[in-house]
Amino acid sequence: MSTTTKTVKTAARPVRSLAILGIVLVAMTALAFIQGATSVRLGLDLRGGTSVTLQPRIAPGESGKVTNEAIDQAVSIIRQRVNSLGVAESEVAAQGSGTNRQIVISVPGDTGRRVVELVGQTAELRFRQVLASQPSTIAAGSASAPATGVSAEINATFAALDCKKAANLQGTSTDAPSDTIAVCDRSGLTKYILAPAEVLGRQISKASAGIDTQGGNAWYVSLTFNGEGTSAFGALTTRVTTLAEPLNQVAIVLDGLVVSSPRINEPIPSGNAQITGSFTQLEAQDLANVLKYGALPLSFDRGEVQQISPTLGADQLNAGLLAGGLGLLLVLLYSLLYYRGLGLVTVGSLLVAGSLVYLLFLLLGKWIGFTLTLAGIAGAIVAIGVTADSFIIFFERIRDEIREGRSLRTAVDTGWIRARHTILIADFVSIIAAVLLYFFAVGGVRGFAFTLGLTTIVDLIVVFVFTKPLVTIVAKLNFFASGHRFSGFSAKSTGTLPAPKEA
Amino acid sequence: MSKFSGLGGRLYRGETSIDFIGNRRRWYSISALFILASIAALTLQGLHLGIEFKGGSSFTVTKINASIEDARAAVATVGVPGEIIVQNIGTDKVRVQTAALDTPQNNAVQDALATKFSVATENIDTQIIGPSWGKEITRKALYGLFGFLICVMLYLAMAFEPKMSIAAIVAVIHDVFITVGIYALVGFDVTPATVIGFLTILGYSLYDTVVVFDKIRENTRTITASSKSTFSQATNLAVNQTLVRSFNTSLIALLPVGSILFVGAGLLGAGTLKDLSLALFIGLAVGTYSSIFIAPPVLAQLREREPAMIALAKRVNGRGGAALVVAPIVAVPTGQVRGPRNQPKRKGRK
Q1: Closest partner residue to A374 among B147, B255, B273, by Cβ?
Q2: For an interface test with B, which of A51, A66, A396 has the most B Cβ atoms less than 10 Å from its Cβ?
Q3: pLDDT at A12 exceeding the cut of 60
Q4: CATH top-level class for A44-120+302-306?
Q5: What confidence score (pLDDT) does residue B348 get?
Q6: Which helix (H) or strand (E) holds A210?
Q7: What is the pLDDT of residues B182-219, one digit of tens each?
């Protein structure tokens, strides 16, 4: 090992990496400001709200029906219901994979009970004949010709129905199949009176979107019914096809909202139907997915319901911050006491690590919707210890090198090469732990794993581009190099034997 | 402090040495005793599982002077089935835990408590766990545990050597057993937060072990080239050399965890922070113990069986029986290292 070339080479580098780190920090701060990410997004356990975790109920032998598409459909149905509450920042998302997927609904604020009741019901798909329809542009309540063969009560409900109101686009499968109902379509553009259901979603056996290459590349949805469905759909289409508009339309109703209401052009006794129209690819695929989901509707169990009042949320936030501050203070005190002047490097490194983590929280909140939960705060606090540990490994290594008789400057370089190896392996083990926790865990545990992983990576960055360069720089200061009493490198504190007296 | 630092130097040079490897039977016996006690506690008492694992509902009312009797009376009017646990949390909270209820029953309990303590139902912190949810969480925690052990074992086998990975995993399993045993013995509540704590300990306990093993590897890399010390002696020196580091890293890790525990248990009374930090606190302490007292002796035992190490031990012992007694103390880690006395003189140093 040629020590001379090494010191020459490292001479320019520490300042450069500190400068780069400074630029990155400034850039991240600017980015956070530009993106308007000025505060960390807090989880419901820190600001109050309701979260419900739903798990698909799987009957024996039916595990195949919990597909990703089915879960995505269920998510969009539940999102439709939750959005009708009109609470800002409500979230509905799927977590996990395969049959282990769960749907997590989080709604901030005091809507607790309503959310719980809304999201639990199974959404079903039905085919109903259209008895009347009216665009929402006509004001609700204005007189319209009552539909024939429908009770006055339903006609009145229909007349009063305002599809522009969020509450009326909630869905929920309160529509009994045997009732005549007045409902809106999903987008709130049209309202309908619909006859009792004649074909049910479960009677669909297949649905897919396709493109008609001969007929001008139009997208369509094809649909196949099972035996029962074939005869029911055959009877329905035969009866309505000759009727006048809108009675010749059949509405596809999912979760109490009309998804599509195609006109029946001819009787379809074969059980194979095609829905055409000016579909885009996306629209055709969406409709096909709705039909597929309707064939095998998912029921959910409420796995976990958590209602946290804003008071408790604030308490938990304060407690988390207090614990973090206290933990940080203790670590700083200990390193200053034990490592003296070198402890200042620890203080600086922890501050840099802290600001990096904070900026990442801000930006990730904006980019991937990262929310900080209580478990996340705990993960970050635990990480203070892990981060400080890397410094200790490095510092102790330097001391070991000094004990072997090296000068401080050489000790920093040789100690770093050895410490780096240990730090990399140890941090990598932490990252494995965080990744596995993240993928195997549910709910709050994921928040913990995420912050733990994130802070471990930040720890690596800080040790490499801040702590090491800084130690290299301070090693040149006489205060440290001479082994001053308070430098943390004094002969007394490293336990180096006094230099032998000349005989 | 500086006395302790001076100790670091003496440990490093081997002037002060604790015989971790030679006394392994003593450490093994202590651990065996703890593990037996853990198994006994687990079979006799079992773990005190929180409602997250069993299914059930928990209602917490925040109200100064809320009494357990009032809460119990309020819930009794609803007439819910199963056992009802009512306890005070901190000074201003009362918590009611019931078996798994359906939605109308949950609402009825909420309403009854709200009326009794005249608070809004929204201000009652509620947690409802479905009966099948607990199985899901348990299953996932077990998957996480096994996945972690396998990944880490493979990684350490690659980064170090297979025998080190076996010794490290032995130490981790040791930690899990004892920590779980302490939970069973004392009867602390086990919640998902506790499980997070357990899983984190695994990572942390390995972190400590990795630091020690890294030094052992360094000290024993060229060990068969000379006949100065046996593998056990070199390992023992490595453990002594990293002792101050292990102590410092563990203490530094315990400080923040301790402060979470203090704040979580002292101010909030119960919940995520307390459960998590308690598991971490116990686990970290056990983990530090095992990375010094269990993992290195296990490794030494595994390695000493290798023919090369047996031959080395013969050579070392052959050099003189008397040397063996003090060997762990005077052993010099590697051939290239020079003592402080025969280094070139440096300027500016007293």
Answers
A1: B273
A2: A396
A3: no
A4: alpha beta
A5: 44
A6: strand A204-212
A7: 888 888 888 877 877 777 777 777 777 888 888 888 88
260-289 in A: which are within 8 Å (CB) of B?
none
Say if residue B191 is in the same domain as residue B278: yes
Nearest CA in chain A to B93: A312
CA closest to B147 among chain A residues: A436
Residue A352: predicted pLDDT: 92
Indicate whether B9 and B68 sit together in one domain: no
Contact at CB, A429 and B10, closer than 8 angstroms:
no
Cis peptide leading into A269, omega within 30 of 0?
no
Q: CB of B64 within 8 Å of any CB in chain A?
A: no
CA angle A183, A189, A193 (to 5 degrees): 25
Rounded to the nearest angstrom, the minimum Cα separation between A67 and chain B is 18
In whole angstroms, how large is the CA radius of gyration of chain A?
33
B92 at the A interface (CB within 8 A)? Answer: no
- What secondary structure does DSSP assign to B288-342, as a single string? HHHHHHTHHHHHHHHHHTSHHHHHHHHHHHHT-HHHHHHHHHH--S-TT---GGG
- pLDDT, tens digit, 9 for 90 and up, residues A195-246: 888 888 888 888 888 888 776 778 889 989 988 889 999 999 999 888 888 8
Name the minimum distance, in Å, from the CA of B44 to any CA of chain A: 29
Interface A:B, Cβ pairs < 8 A: 281
Residue A5: how many CB atoms within 10 A of its CB?
Answer: 9
Give the CATH number of the domain where residue B90 resides.
Answer: 3.30.460.30
Task: Give the gap in angstroms from C-alpha B256 to the nearest C-alpha of chain A.
Answer: 4
The reported pLDDT for the residue numbered A375 is: 82
- SS3 assignment, position A299: strand
Last residue of one domain, picked from the residues B110, B129, B148:
B129
Q: Domain count of chain B? A: 2
Q: Which sequence spans correspond to the domains of chain A?
A: 9-40+309-494, 44-120+302-306, 125-284
Question: Which range of residues forms the domain containing residue B245?
Answer: 2-49+134-307
DSSP A468-502: HHHHHHHTTSHHHHTT-TTTT--HHHHTPPPPPPP
**Residue A90: pLDDT over 90:** no
What span, in angstroms and rounded, lies between the C-alpha atoms of A335 and A339?
5
Residues on chain B touching A327 (C-beta within 8 angstroms): 255-260
Q: Are B17 and B325 in contact (CB under 8 A)?
A: no
pLDDT, residue A490, reads 66
Is B278 a member of any domain? yes
Would you say A177 and A200 are in contact if contact means Cβ atoms under 8 Å apart?
yes
The answer to whether the complex's ipTM is over 0.85 is no
Check CB contact of B264 with chain A, cutoff 8 Å. Answer: yes
B236 domain-assigned: yes
Whether the CB-CB separation of A387 and A364 falls below 8 Å is answered with no
pLDDT value at A2 more than 50: no
Specify if B332 maps to a domain: no
- The Cα of B212 is separated from the nearest Cα of chain A by a number of Å equal to 9
Residue B346 included in any domain: no
Q: Specify whether B124 is located in the same domain as B227.
A: no
Q: Do A436 and B148 touch (CB under 8 A)?
A: yes
CB B245, CB A419: distance < 8 Å: no
Residues of A with Cβ-Cβ distance to B249 under 8 angstroms: 389, 392-393
What is residue B250's DSSP assignment?
A: H
CATH fold, domain A125-284, is: Gyrase A; domain 2 (3.30.1360)
B211 and B110, same domain (yes or no):
no
Q: Enumerate residues 114 to 173 of chain B having a beta carbon within 8 A of any beta carbon in chain A.
A: 120-130, 132-133, 136-137, 140-141, 143-144, 147-148, 151-152, 155-156, 159-160
Domain covering A9-40+309-494, topology: Multidrug efflux transporter AcrB transmembrane fold (1.20.1640)
Q: Cβ of A433 and B195 within 8 Å? A: no
Q: Do A306 and B280 touch (CB under 8 A)?
A: no
